[in-house]
Amino acid sequence: MVPVDIASLEDTCRLMDTGAPPLPQQCDLTMSEHIEKVVAELVEQFGRIDILINNAAIVGSYGRELEAYTEEEWDCLIDTNLKSTFLMTRAVWPHMRRQGTGKIVCIGSIAGKIGGLFAGPHYCASKGGVHGFVRWAAKNGAKHGILVNGIAPGPVVTEMTVHESSIQDSMIPLGRLGRPEDIAEPVVFLASPASNFITGCVLDVNGGLLMA
C-alpha cells in the first residue's frame, strides 16, 4: 500500500493502520506533473499498479447563499475533490491498460446524489462529478479489463467532521454516524476479486440515510 497525500509523510503514516508499514509519497494531487512523477516512480519500483483508491477530498464551508461562495473556494474544492480523481486515474490508466487488468475505486458522497446534507454547492458538484466520472471510466475501461466503481458515504466521523454538531445519530436509520471502517470494508470489497463482475457501480454506504 502506497498512500499519496499532500500532508507530511509523518502525518500520513500516523493516520495509517494497515498492519503493514505504509510507503507514503508526498504529492499535490491537483498538479499533474507531481502525480505523473509519483506514478512513474511507483511503476519503476513495483513494476505495475493494480489498485487505485481516489480518496482526496476537502469539505469546505456550507450554509451560505450561493452568491457568498467565491470563485477561489469553488476552484480549490473542485480541484481537490474532482480534478485529482481525473489526474490520478489518467496517470495509472495506461499502465492498467497495458496489464489488461486493474481496479479503481473513487470516493463520492451522498451529497453528490441528493444535493447536499451538510455541504456547500461546490462539494455537491464535486462529488456528483466523481459519480459521473466513475460511470464514464467504467464504460471505457471495461474493454481493457479496468474495473471502476465508487462509494457514496453518508456522514462519517473523521477529523474533518468530528466537530460538526449538526449531524445527529437520530438522523441515520441505523442510529449512528459512520465510522472509517464502515467505508474501508466496502472499498476493500470493490478492490478485491470478490467484485470481479462489478463495474460502474456507486455503492451507497450511509446507514440507510438515502432512503430516509
Q: Can you tell me about this structure?
A:
There is one protein chain. The longest helix has 29 residues, at 71-99. The chain has helices spanning 9-15, 32-46, 71-99, 111-114, 121-141, 180-191, and strands at 4-5, 25-26, 51-54, 102-107, 146-153, 202-205. 32% of the residues are buried. The radius of gyration is 17 Å and the shape is globular. Helices cover 42% and strands 12% of the residues. It contains 6 helices and 6 strands, in the order βαβαβαβααβαβ. The protein folds into 2 domains: 1-47, no CATH class; 50-211, 3-Layer(aba) Sandwich (Rossmann fold). The protein is an alpha/beta fold and 212 residues long. The chain has a 4-stranded parallel beta sheet with strand order 3-4-5-6, sandwiched between helices. It has a two-stranded parallel ribbon with strand order 1-2.
Give a brief outline of the structure.
Helix content is 42%, strand content 12%. The chain has 212 residues and is an alpha/beta fold.
How does the SSE layout of this entry go?
Layout: E1 4-5, H1 9-15, E2 25-26, H2 32-46, E3 51-54, H3 71-99, E4 102-107, H4 111-114, H5 121-141, E5 146-153, H6 180-191, E6 202-205
Parallel strand pairs: 1-2, 3-4, 4-5, 5-6
